[in-house]
Sequence to fold (673 residues):
Amino acid sequence: MDTYSFDASQELFSRAVKVIPNGIYGHTSPALTVPGSYPYYAVRAEGAHYWDMDGNRYIDWMCAYGPMALGYNHPKVEEAATRQRELGDTLNHPAPVMVKLAEKMVEISDTADWAVFGKNGSDMTSWSLQVAREHTGRDKIIMCKGAYHGAHAWCTPGHGGLTQADRINVLLGEYNNLQSIKTLFENNPDDVAAIILTPFHHPAFGDMVMPEESWYPGIRKLCDEYGALLIIDDVRAGFRLHMGGSVEYFNGKADLICYSKALGNCYPISACTGRQAYMSAASKVFLTGSFWGSAVSMAAALAALNVMEEEGSIEKMLHIGTLLQNGLKELGDAHGMKLRITGPPSIPFVSFADETDFRRNQLFCAEVTKRGAFFHPHHNWFVSSAHTEDDVKKTLVMADEAMKEVKKHFG
Amino acid sequence: MKLNPAVLARLNLFAVVPRMVELVEFDQQARSIASTCSGSIELSARGLGSVRLVFRNGSLDVIRDAGGSADTGLWFPGPELLNKLFAGEKAIPVPYVWKPWNLPKLVVFQKLAERLDAMLGDPEKALADSGDDPKTKEFLVRCMLYTALAGVKELVEYDEKLAWFSKSTPDGTFLIQVAGDGPQAHLFIRNGVVTPGKGPVANPSTTLEIKNLDIAWELLQGRIDAMGALGSCDIRMTGFLPIADNVNVAMDRLGAYLQPSA
Fold:
């Protein structure tokens, strides 16, 4: 099988570093993959596939790092977006679609009595903390070590431009360790406004950790006992496990839920939903952005939610994800290299068992990517409802060759 | 940018002064100076600790916080005075000369310091003066790598801006190597404590490999953008990348201290 080259990507990147700090910043930085074996720029996409600027086509197992849930350019989503674009996008007033979208979000979730909208996950996670603080009159927030809740100062994994004050009200507990959370509450009995959790733990450069059975009941009990809110950051996992919020998949009940990524099927939108009890506090926390009223994104999100329900997209993702996981595990076994796959099938994290430095994974994912299926060596992957069994089959052929390369290199 | 003079003094004492070892090994002129001396000279500053230069048969060892007493030395009442001296400004430390015949050792130190400054203070000129000698380039790159990694240790332990480092950097070993038998240096990181080392290390958790000596030189002179070099594969990072991310932040901070005009 021929492997791809990336000359055009590299050429453009060499121009980019002269005019853009780091050339490409954030999670799509080449530094986070394997430079030389990955594309840096994408030019178009369709369904479960995309093309880079060297003309290479990929089966996309990263789904734009999550936002692509139904396939790129899904006809129903695009039709709704186009219709709204022709009417108007960013206007003096919200478009009527904003109300329809809020009604839809309330309809699909047991714990949503209202909804607000922003552009990115960080918009909503940060705003939700303010709502909790407004409601409780308290300052402190509990989050789990290693959890990613966005790029704002209180939670960014970066280090630049921060002050000590930025995190002074953030207490760190351990995921799945109820005692660690209980201790934080006990030590700050009147100060904790909320605990913010991802529905399952998806740290950077590490295995996914699914919640233990006692986790959510225990967290709920602690929140109720101490009068704190439970905020679920469903930005990454939302609409890949449960339509009403991923925490429902784990039998948890949240007070506020933050969404983004899959919500708009690649249109920029985020949302926070909440229970009635917090609507008054929500109304007191200023919330706006120049483009947060963008009607096109809202129309796309509304259409996307409808398609997800109509097509049973989550079941499809789980099915395809399971096929991919099983196929990869079998390949690993056949090549004498055990894979470790954690997380739900629709959002898997793949690495080599007994390996902590990712070197084999870096080579494996690079070799698969160079053959036409985009695998990330350090980040969880995403499955969409546009992926087919044929995509899985083709990917496994590439993975088989990649395994041989890994075997050759590492023995 | 707000810099801590005590941290700069630590960098001068524990990252720059030890490069005299490599200097004496490589540079004929420095070796000649060193060969005139036998015994030990100590530099110490209040609250910072000390480095002792031990001369023996023309070679030099540098020992941190050696204990006991050196033959002679210079004591600095505070970091500012020490930094002034290293910046080439007029600064008069307190010499401790136990025996009058040890006084010339301080002159040896001064001459070596001048030679070190001539080589590492302006490496471009040093390389040009050598006629672009590849061995000189290798020496300069090696010294800069050693200085950088020794500096990282001081920064992550004492610079407030990097107080997060020890809590958020996983255990591991970080190797920087210049491909093609070029210089290598590494860091051990255990429980947030950093220990720099010269040369290779077995089974590094993270490797930063620079394609060749010329690329390394251009990078260290700031003429190549590190991210651009990564994108074009002139630099390769493999292994557990979060270690490299954190060390890179510390290295950037080092630039603020050692190249304040950059």
